[in-house]
């Protein structure tokens, strides 16, 4: 590549608005987690559940909400604003599965939905399992 | 027909008879909406899959073009077309229903002009009388082909372009008409070593620059020769980079230059990030708006430079840089 073009390429390098994105992610992610927390507290208070059980139900409800908003075409719009704040919570996991499933619906149940559902979410499972093994090993070796 | 300079050719006998342009709702609501022949209310276009929706759109574009000219498919000598789907299946499937000899081409988003250049050769040589050229792209098929599922919530960076949902066909002929195809420049493949497939405007700006420069060198013309120079789908960031490269070379094209990706949408009021891209972007603007503007006399001579990023998701995941290409064609109003 010649020098003139190299120079323009450097000059026009797009700037990413990292600070603004971090703030938005913090707020949106925080709201999602607050909602989850409220559901857990409500289940303990009004559902008379143990804390652990309430947590599990709360996760199920959040996954449900993530999937429904994905199906309604809302989650990607929130995601465009909230960035990482919408992807990191469990609703983001639900969104990656539901969006993959919806996208592959046209190829049928087996070749489409089942084959592709974990296309994006699969990485989360792999990283989760591998880090679980590593942390477990460290704990075992340290005897804690 | 003769070769001029390194990469260009002159055409003496190729005219544009008619065109057909079908677009999605967002394109219909854009600034050029009234120049398109058919606007669909939603992206599904009454079909079960996105791919079928794109096929329907392309089929309609062929039918509209042929109906306008009142010409039967049997009187079309050949069709040259391509799209962004794997193995260019849109043309392959749509043309099952037509008894028209078919040449499938792939030039990514430069297909609209690549197909026109190839089609014009059959007419210029005297072999064929009527040849169709065309292309299509659909936001949802392109998203799943190159990016993420449509409903995935990941944030898109601001350099991301929005794939235009549009299909366009153009009927070229040796029969005289108001618009003549007079010159063409075939592009080379360039690479300015950008790896980001979500920054395609800047990837393609280098190909656009060299093709435009080569066009001027080959014909010994200045940018002022044209009332309008348009690139296919550089959009906001690519246009900015292209103009700065021209400044660096002290070649001014600022006054009469625009980009189809910025013309088809109203970036301030439509949610399209950097602007439009895709095969349908340059096709809809050129076959729809620009032909009409030439007929109205708003412009007399236009240089259309369709730009294409030559990538697929596998090679991008392998961290290779992205090559690009640009082909140019000149459309003139016959007085």
What does the secondary structure layout of this molecule look like, with pairings?
The complex is a heterodimer of chains A (144) and B (335).
Chain A: H1 3-11, H2 18-46, H3 51-71, H4 75-82, H5 84-87, H6 90-104, H7 109-116, H8 122-142
Helix pairs in contact in A: 2-3, 3-6, 6-7
Chain B: E1 2-4, E2 8-23, H1 25-28, E3 38-39, H2 50-69, E4 78-83, H3 89-94, E5 102-104, H4 111-124, E6 130-137, H5 139-146, E7 162-163, E8 166-173, E9 179-185, H6 200-219, E10 228-231, H7 235-248, E11 257-259, H8 260-263, E12 276-277, H9 279-296, E13 301-309, H10 313-317, E14 324-333
Parallel strand pairs in B: 2-3, 4-5, 4-6, 7-12, 10-11, 10-13
Antiparallel strand pairs in B: 1-2, 2-8, 2-9, 6-8, 9-14, 13-14
Helix pairs in contact in B: 6-7
Could you explain how this protein is built, in words?
Chain A has helices spanning 3-11, 18-46, 51-71, 75-82, 84-87, 90-104, 109-116, 122-142. Chain A is built from eight helices and no strands. Chain A is mainly alpha-helical and 144 residues long. In chain A, α2 (18-46) packs across α3. Chain A has one domain (3-142). In chain A, 80% of the residues lie in helices and 0% in strands. Chain B is of the alpha/beta class and 335 residues long. Chain B has two domains: 2-173, Stage V sporulation protein AD (Peroxisomal Thiolase, Chain A, domain 1); 180-333, Peroxisomal Thiolase, Chain A, domain 1. The mean pLDDT of chain B is 96. The A-B interface holds A 1, 4-5, 7-9, 11-12, 14, 16-17, 21, 70-71, 73, 75-76, 78-80, 82-84, 86-87, 92, 95-96, 98-100, 102-103, 106, 120 and B 48-51, 144, 148-159, 191-194, 199, 202, 206, 209, 237, 240-241, 244-245, 248-249.
């Amino acid at each position: 590549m010649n020098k003139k073009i190299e120079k323009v390429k450097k000059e026009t390098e797009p700037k990413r608005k990292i600070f603004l994105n971090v703030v938005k992610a913090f707020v949106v992610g925080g709201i999602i987690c607050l909602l989850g927390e409220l559901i857990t507290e409500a289940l303990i208070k009004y559902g008379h559940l143990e804390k652990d059980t309430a947590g599990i139900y709360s996760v199920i409800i959040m996954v449900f909400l993530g999937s429904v908003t994905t199906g309604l075409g809302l989650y990607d719009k929130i995601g465009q604003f909230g960035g990482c704040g919408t992807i990191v919570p469990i609703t983001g996991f639900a969104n990656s599965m539901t969006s993959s499933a919806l996208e592959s619906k046209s190829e049928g149940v087996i070749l489409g939905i089942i084959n592709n559902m974990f296309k994006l979410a699969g990485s989360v499972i792999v990283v989760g399992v591998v880090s679980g093994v590593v942390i477990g090993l460290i704990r075992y070796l340290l005897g804690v | 027909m003769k070769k001029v300079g390194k990469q260009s050719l002159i055409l003496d006998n190729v005219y544009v008879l008619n065109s057909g342009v079908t677009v999605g709702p967002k394109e219909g609501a854009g600034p050029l909406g009234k120049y398109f022949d058919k606007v669909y209310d939603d992206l599904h276009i009454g079909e079960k899959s996105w791919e079928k929706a794109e096929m329907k759109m392309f089929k309609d574009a062929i039918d509209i073009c042929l109906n306008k000219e009142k010409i039967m498919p049997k009187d079309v000598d050949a069709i040259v077309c391509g799209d962004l789907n794997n193995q260019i299946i849109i043309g392959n499937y749509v043309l099952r229903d037509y008894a028209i000899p078919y040449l499938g081409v792939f030039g990514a988003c430069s297909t609209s002009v690549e197909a026109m250049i190839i089609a014009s050769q059959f007419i210029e040589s005297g072999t064929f009388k009527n040849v169709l050229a065309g292309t299509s792209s659909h936001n949802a098929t392109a998203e799943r082909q190159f990016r993420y599922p449509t409903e995935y919530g990941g944030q898109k960076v601001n350099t991301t372009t929005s794939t235009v949902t549009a299909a366009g066909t153009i009927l070229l002929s040796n029969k005289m008409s108001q618009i003549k195809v007079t010159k063409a420049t075939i592009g080379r493949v360039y690479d300015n070593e950008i790896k980001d497939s979500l920054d395609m405007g800047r990837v393609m700006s280098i190909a656009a620059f060299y093709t435009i420069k080569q066009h001027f060198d080959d014909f010994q013309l200045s940018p002022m020769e044209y009332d309008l120079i348009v690139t296919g789908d550089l959009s906001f960031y690519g246009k900015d980079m292209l103009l700065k490269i021209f400044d660096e070379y002290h070649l001014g094209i600022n006054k009469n230059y625009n980009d189809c990706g910025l013309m088809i949408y109203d970036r301030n009021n439509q949610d399209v990030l950097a602007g439009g891209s895709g095969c349908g972007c340059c096709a809809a603007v050129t076959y729809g708006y620009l032909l009409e503007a030439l007929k109205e006399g708003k412009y007399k001579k236009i240089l259309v430079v369709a730009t294409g990023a030559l990538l697929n998701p596998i090679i991008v995941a392998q961290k290779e840089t992205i090559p690009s290409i640009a082909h140019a064609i000149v459309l003139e109003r016959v007085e």
